[in-house]
Write a structure and sequence with these properties.
The complex is a heterodimer of chains A (346) and B (592). Chain A has helices at residues 2-24, 31-34, 40-64, 71-89, 96-114, 118-133, 137-162, 209-213, 238-258, 290-299, 324-338, and strands at residues 182-185, 188-191. Chain A has 346 residues and is mainly α. In chain A, strand 1 (182-185) and strand 2 form a beta hairpin. The longest helix of chain A is centred in the middle third of the chain and has 26 residues, at 137-162. The radius of gyration of chain A is 30 Å and the shape is elongated. Chain B has 592 residues and is α+β, with helices and mostly antiparallel strands. Chain B has helices at 2-25, 30-40, 62-80, 119-129, 145-159, 188-200, 203-207, 249-258, 274-287, 328-331, 415-418, 484-489, 561-591; strands at residues 51-53, 174-176, 299-300, 305-306, 311-316, 336-339, 341-342, 357-364, 368-376, 428-434, 457-463, 468-473, 481-482, 491-498, 501-509, 526-533, 545-546, 550-554. In chain B, strands 5, 6, 7, 8, 9, 10, 11, 12, 13, 14, 15, 16, 17 and 18 form a 14-stranded mixed β-sheet that branches. Chain B has a two-stranded antiparallel sheet with strand order 1-2. A two-stranded antiparallel sheet of chain B has the order 3-4. Chain B starts with a helix and ends with a helix. Among the domains of chain B are: 62-176, Cytochrome c-like domain (Cytochrome Bc1 Complex, Chain D, domain 2, Orthogonal Bundle); 308-383 and 412-444 and 492-554, Immunoglobulin-like, CATH 2.60.40.1190; 566-592. The chains are: A mainly alpha (346), B alpha+beta (592). At the A-B interface, helix 6, helix 7 and helix 9 of A face helix 3, strand 7 and helix 13 of B.
């Protein structure tokens, strides 16, 4: 029964390992497996389980043939495998500190595994004791080597960590600060809670979010305009015409930083730290009310509160360059082009 | 991935076909085979070495054209315009201007000079990878491959008007077989031969003797009459055809072999051999900027430009700070790349900045700190006319000297047409630090653009007329205040323009007047901003290129603790080892 389970685990694990190998060698598209968003943690767990299965099978088969790997090396090798897996397989890479944490937990787990019963524990510590006792010339040499290498290595590591690091300091800014209650643009005061985009209108010219939401670009990859909703149609009226006018403003003023696809990768983005806001990310304009954008666009970086680093933002105070109408239209365009709906106050 | 499979299958088939051909015709190579086939097809025209006459590309279905129209009017129309004439809303503030598709002139191709591109290869790659250094972004990950093919169907069928992709009478497709050509390794001999060819083929006439694009930089025009600059070969990440793999020599080889339609860059397929072109490509590739050990600069996948570290390091030295840029003390220092963008925050906005980076090094001793700046500038600009304003003035629009490009002017008034016609001002560089930064609660800083009333900044500005001045900045629209006393302590050590590159070295006191001048302290992070003006770009006043915030750090000598603590730890470990061994020995003794 036990061998049956081992075989099953080993075969499934082998298939997974083969797929991983094919993916990493570029023979199979990684997208084949990684297509489902948010799938990464599951994938990691499945892969690791599969690997455990394969290792179990391997050690079982070796033991059957009289080539059993000592417990000590099993534990050590598995831990090294985890180290390599976390470092090379996981993408995007995880920071060193998180990796260190995972590996410490893994070390404890490995330790618990090898000490789960008296027999295993004895097996595990035998090689260590052999070195400590140094009964053979080989072990004696090994012991001498360890006695010197361990303090020397630790000296090296701690020296490295004590060396002053001259990396860029990490400064976290608030990306979406609390907006003010009102903002005055071109002599007119706008109450952020009640103001509306005057161009978000239906064909009769009445404010209508539902109507305009139906005309924005489709969601998902590609994000194309709805068929028969072309802002460049010469007959386009109302909302769609305003979208085109907003787009004209965007592509005469904003794309230099925010990019042709509104993803923050414009012509000048290379010089920025961090690069400009990515409107296609669901964490930016999709989370905000239109009036927040109106305030942010009108007052620019210089109008930000302290926690948002006004000194470092190159975002112009657009009231210097654009009319109120142009600002509303460009906001309209940004939602149309990214396919996001502005948040409402209720 | 699919593409790769196809390429591999294609190559296999080709090899198989070539093998068969060898058996039957006894000809010597794959390439000869290709020519044989041409003769069979009844085309007598000679095909250059390494090329092969190809079949006409398949014409897109009406459904694809219609679907592509939807992509085009969502994503492309904003620059390329309703009729694909490169006159969308963005066009007049861009240089180079967006492509006018109507003539069917495309730069990056595998087809011979003058021919139409292969839509499924060349145009698809352009849309996928973008054209770095221009406004064309990479659409990879934004449009699906299907959408990219559809939009190309629309562009080739509807917007290319003067030529037809399936015009059997006038069009031919002679395709560079780049996958079959084996690059020659960039050995010293190859690079040497490449350097000779660079002269023989007169590359230097436009690209300059060091490849910085400073040769015939101001007289070139493209097919539409707009000024065009020769590529700066030291910045391969800005090569239009770099395909997001800037250090790949094949991209350069392709450009040499097929030329760039619509530009003065010719094809060298007829007057060089394949071998010569590999040598030349190796040489041009070797001109691209590299790291200290000759390795390619790491490219940031977010921007497709070199990765930037936002820290400028200053190294301590004993004795005098060297003024000669070739001094080993300078040459041994790590240089840091400072990225520059156009100043597009305040009027007059600079939509096209011709200087996009500066390399910075720094040294300090107990009294002074020196900076060395190197940046590529195709022209040495020194104002010929008397400057009618005071050096402290910043609002120069009042003099009518500089103004912002209007959004819609039509082609003749566009920013592209205005290039090379500006009044020439001084090239200049300025570096800005906060005054009394010690008292500013971090992470707060004076505003990046010349500080503000609350936090004044220390600005040191060099101009190509040889002046080196010190100012206090109080805000983007506030005239500078002179700091004459400090200026007397500034020393210009070197300012030289050679082969398209400025090298500037100056030094300043580490500490002067605490109230007015920046006090440098060892080991502290001092916020720094860089400004560069290109005189031939009409840069003056607020029309300039500007960096993000960087930090200048005077590298501290290594503190004693760095040695003490590790030693304490190591000694502790030795004791621990002794304890473990003794215990073990006692235990065994006890057992025995």
């Amino acid at each position: 029964m036990k061998s049956l389970i081992l075989w099953a685990g080993g075969i499934i694990g082998g298939i997974f390992l083969a797929v991983i190998f094919l993916m990493s060698s570029g023979l199979v598209s990684p997208q084949m497996i990684q297509l489902v968003p948010g799938y990464m943690p599951m994938q990691v767990l499945i892969e690791l389980t599969a690997c455990v299965g394969v290792f179990a099978l391997l050690s079982y088969l070796l033991a059957q043939n009289g080539l059993a790997i000592p417990k000590f090396w099993q534990g050590t090798l598995f831990w090294v495998f985890l180290l390599l897996y976390l470092k090379f397989r996981i993408y995007p890479p995880i920071p060193y500190s998180v990796r260190a944490l995972y590996l410490a937990v893994s070390a404890v787990a490995v330790f618990m595994w090898v000490s789960s019963n008296e027999e295993d524990w004895k097996q595990f510590k035998q090689p260590i004791l052999n070195v400590l006792d140094a009964m053979t010339p080989f072990h004696k040499a090994l012991r001498t080597f360890y006695l010197i290498a361990i303090p020397a290595l630790l000296w090296g590591f701690s020296y490295q960590s004590f060396l002053p690091s001259l990396e860029e300091p990490i400064e976290l800014r608030t990306v979406h600060p609390a907006p003010p209650a009102t903002t005055k643009v071109h002599g007119r005061t706008f109450v952020l809670q009640t103001a509306q985009n005057p161009y978000r209108v239906d064909l009769e010219g009445k404010y209508d979010q539902g109507f305009t939401d139906d005309l924005i670009v489709e969601q998902g990859m590609g994000r194309l305009m709805k068929p028969d909703a072309n802002p460049w149609d010469p007959d386009a009226k109302g909302y769609l015409k305003h979208v085109r006018e907003g787009g004209e403003v965007f592509f005469q003023n904003c794309h230099f930083c925010h990019g042709d696809n509104l993803n923050g990768r414009g012509l000048h983005a290379f010089a920025f730290n961090p690069i400009p806001a990515n409107f296609t990310d669901s964490g930016t304009i999709a989370q905000l009310q239109e009036t927040f954008l109106f305030w942010r666009v009108s007052k620019g970086g210089i109008g930000l509160p302290r926690e948002s680093f006004p000194w470092a933002s190159t975002m112009p105070r657009w009231e210097e360059h654009l009319t109120t109408d142009e600002i509303w239209k460009v906001i309209l365009f940004e939602y149309w082009h990214t396919g996001f709906y502005p948040r409402t106050w209720d | 991935m699919k593409d790769r499979w196809f390429t591999q299958i294609r190559m296999l088939l080709l090899v198989a076909a070539a093998g068969t051909a060898l058996v039957f015709s006894g000809s010597a190579s794959v390439l000869t085979y290709a020519q044989d086939e041409d003769e069979d097809a009844g085309e007598a025209e000679e095909v250059p070495e390494g090329f092969k006459a190809a079949a006409f590309p398949a014409m897109p279905s009406a459904g694809d054209v219609e679907a592509g129209k939807r992509v085009y009017f969502t994503k492309c129309v904003w620059c390329h315009g309703v009729d694909g004439a490169g006159d969308g809303p963005a066009a007049d503030r861009l240089w180079p201007r967006p492509r006018n598709f109507n003539q069917g002139t495309f730069k990056i191709r595998h087809t011979a000079s003058g021919e139409l591109p292969l839509p499924d290869v060349d145009l698809l790659q352009t849309v996928t990878h973008g054209l770095p250094g221009s406004g064309m972004p990479s659409w990879d990950g934004i449009l699906t491959e299907k959408q990219r093919r559809q939009v190309l169907a629309f562009v080739t069928a509807e917007l290319v008007q003067d030529r037809e992709f399936d015009d059997k009478e006038f069009e031919t497709y002679t395709v560079l077989q780049i996958d079959d050509l084996e690059p020659i390794p960039p050995t010293e001999e190859s690079l040497k031969r490449g350097a000779e060819l660079f002269v023989e083929q007169k590359c230097f006439e436009c690209h300059g003797v060091k490849g910085r694009g400073d040769g015939n930089a101001f007289n070139l025009k493209d097919d539409w009459g707009f000024p065009i600059q020769p590529a700066d070969q030291t910045k391969c990440w800005n090569f239009r055809g770099s395909r997001r793999d800037p250090y790949d020599v094949k991209n350069i080889f392709r450009t040499f072999s097929t030329g760039m339609n619509g530009t003065p860059m010719p094809s060298f397929a007829d007057n060089t051999t394949i071998e010569e072109r590999w040598h030349l490509s190796n040489f041009v590739q070797s001109l691209c900027e590299r790291g200290p050990d000759g390795e390619p600069l790491p490219i940031d996948p977010l921007t497709d430009k070199p990765k930037v570290k936002f820290v400028v390091l200053s190294s301590p030295i004993e004795g005098e700070l060297p003024g000669d840029p070739n001094h080993e003390l300078w040459q041994n220092r790590e240089r840091r790349l400072v990225a520059l963008g156009g100043q597009i925050t305040h009027k007059p906005r600079n939509f096209v900045n011709r200087i996009d980076d500066v390399w910075v090094r720094s040294l300090y001793n107990d009294k002074e700190i020196a900076f060395m700046f190197q940046w590529n500038d195709r022209s040495q600009s020194i104002a010929t006319e008397e400057q009618e304003w005071d050096p402290t003035e910043v609002n120069l629009e009042d003099y009518g000297l500089v103004s912002e490009q209007l959004p819609t002017t039509g082609e003749p008034g566009s920013i592209a047409a205005a290039q090379n016609k500006y009044r020439v001002f001084n090239d200049a560089l300025a570096i800005q630090f906060p005054v009394k930064w010690q008292e500013i609660p971090p992470p707060e800083k004076p505003r990046f653009f010349w500080g503000n009333e609350k936090y004044p900044v220390d600005i040191v500005k060099w101009e190509a007329d040889g002046s080196l001045r010190a100012f206090t900045g109080l805000g983007w629209d506030q005239d500078f205040e002179d700091r004459d006393i400090f200026a007397m302590d500034l020393t210009l050590l070197n300012a030289e323009w050679e082969d398209g590159r400025w090298t500037l070295v100056f030094k300043r006191p580490v500490k002067a007047d605490y109230e007015e001048d920046t006090y440098f302290e060892v080991g502290k992070y001092i916020p720094t901003v860089f400004f560069v003006w290109d005189g031939h770009n009409g840069d003056v006043g607020r029309k300039l290129a500007v960096s993000s915030f960087y930090y200048t750090v005077l590298i501290p000598p290594i503190p004693m603790e760095t040695y003490i603590y590790p030693t304490v730890i190591a000694v502790g470990i030795v004791f621990l080892e002794g304890w473990v061994l003794t215990r073990r020995a006692n235990k065994r003794k006890g057992k025995a």
